Hints:
By secondary structure, the protein is α+β, with helices and mostly antiparallel strands. The protein folds into five domains: about 1-175, Rossmann fold (3-Layer(aba) Sandwich), CATH 3.40.50.300; about 185-270, Elongation Factor Tu (Ef-tu), domain 3 (Beta Barrel); about 275-370, Elongation Factor Tu (Ef-tu), domain 3; about 385-505, Orthogonal Bundle (Arc Repressor Mutant, subunit A); about 510-630, Arc Repressor Mutant, subunit A (Orthogonal Bundle), CATH 1.10.10.10. The protein is built from 19 helices and 35 strands.
Amino acid sequence: MKSVIVGTAGHIDHGKTALVKALTGIDADRLEEEKRRGITIDIGFAHLELPAPNGETLRLGFVDVPGHERFVRNMLAGIGGIDLVVLVIAADEGVKPQTREHFDICRLLAVRRGITVLTKSDAVDAETLEVVRLEVADFLRGSFLDPAHSPIVAASSLTGAGLDDVKTALAKIASEVTVKDSTALARLPVDRVFTMKGFGTVVTGTLVAGSIRKEDELELFPAGKRVRVRGVQVHGSSAEEAIAGQRTALNLAGVSTEDLRRGMMLATAGTFHSTSRADARLSLLGSAKPLKDGARVHFHAYTMETIAEVRLYGTKQLKPGEEAFAQLRLAEPALLLPGDRFIVRQFSPVVTIGGGIVLDAAPPIRKRGAEEVTAFLETMLEGSHEQVLVARVGRSGPAGLTLANLSGEMNIRRAEAETLVARAGLRRCEGVLVSPVAFAEAGSNVIQVLKKFHDANPLVASMSKEALRDRVHLGPEVFSSVLLNATADKKLEVAGELVRLPGRGVVMKDEESESKKIIEQAFLSAGLRVPSLKEVLAGLKVDKVRAQKIVTLLLRDKVLIKISDELVFHQSALADLRQKITALKSTTPKIDVARFKEMTGVSRKYAIPLLEYLDRERVTRRVGDERVIL
């Protein structure tokens, strides 16, 4: 069964709710105040099944909206997810202010189909009805409700006249509507929250994409809270699954009514991120005042609303009837995705002034030039999915973009992202995607940083991977791939955690080579009774900085071994010591400090650090005041 969401639109008291009730038998005014005052205050819902011209059954879900200017914000909460509109104009009044505003809102939201109903046809004579029809036709000409392809039907909810014609027109238009994508990632804008006895927390909304089944895990935005679906209803009846285009009620576990409100969004878990900034194509109505860069507006998307600051790209002012790229900086975070339509209303007085389409809900915070942004947003607006993917990955530079983030940014499933990536010729660094240009630049940067390091440190043969990655500002996945690629191309050499350019080793001047020999000989000849490092370095011809680098080199090559903050030994002396201690095991399985001092001829100052070194090397193990020889 094809599901289509129908929204009403029109001026207050033009008979929208009465028409919905006459068509469906359901009174969409559910609030006591609405019944007492005789006007619609909040959005209401009803449903109807009709046979389509091709014989299939259509399930129409009606979203009835208020017409009073004070409740346009409520109207916007209901109109966002509709597939077609019924523009209601009373035959005894004709086109009125909210008729125009609601019609503008539908055009800005890119509603493509609908019908126009002249209600209260019983209140005027045939001649007046025809005059109103001509007036309305002139008002609609050139729009998506142009009478050339969209019918204008006269009807009376009181007498029932013309209702069959309305149903016929609705069935025909609804059968032409493209069905929403039920295979997409799920999104349900929340328009009602309440508690139902015996069930608990319930939310309702129009499922704008994907499908939701019982026991699904969803994520609540902008809170980021995970919830479980305990039950599903579609148009008031229990169901195993709700699909895109259906009015849906969900019984939720893991959340209370205090955690929920209209304007929140339920979506596929673990994919999306809330945002406080969105780049968009903004259109200003011809009837609006000029909009200045930095102006504050009321922002509406689906059921949410907040205050936003408009930052225009490439211009300081948007004139009536013009379009421009802009960034909308929201006072409260929300889940927005590319392709989402929105409405902006003047901050004060509050009237609808424009709207547009979200192009990028993950813009970088860093300041960018207007030309760079415009070129990127043009691709977001006009490019193919593959071009959009390449542009998004390219924008991320050498940092790259993960497949998971790409899926959320583009609002596509992981499998679709994988298919696009395979065709796009991007570089895959484990789970991170990088453009070929950015990957090549990262490789060049690594080589340049290494070259500068070698030039500045002739006494240090290699640079550590950690220090190199920190200097080139790359993530671990991209850095690892760059090193592998450069090694394969013989542009650098990797040995464990050290990296160097080919052929670049330690280059020493004569006095440095002489100093290296002096240091090594000083510790080699000392055996275990070593001098202090400070004493040895003081007698060298080279300066303190170069002397320390020579020591670092000897330590790195394990010619010298540092066993404590103050004591450094030649590796041969420690090797001899290990051999002597191991040889004792057959005759003396244990040794204490006194025996060790006697055997080696060293003082306690040396004995304790040497024994602790042997413990670390698993030559001995301390047990009380003795060492067991292992």
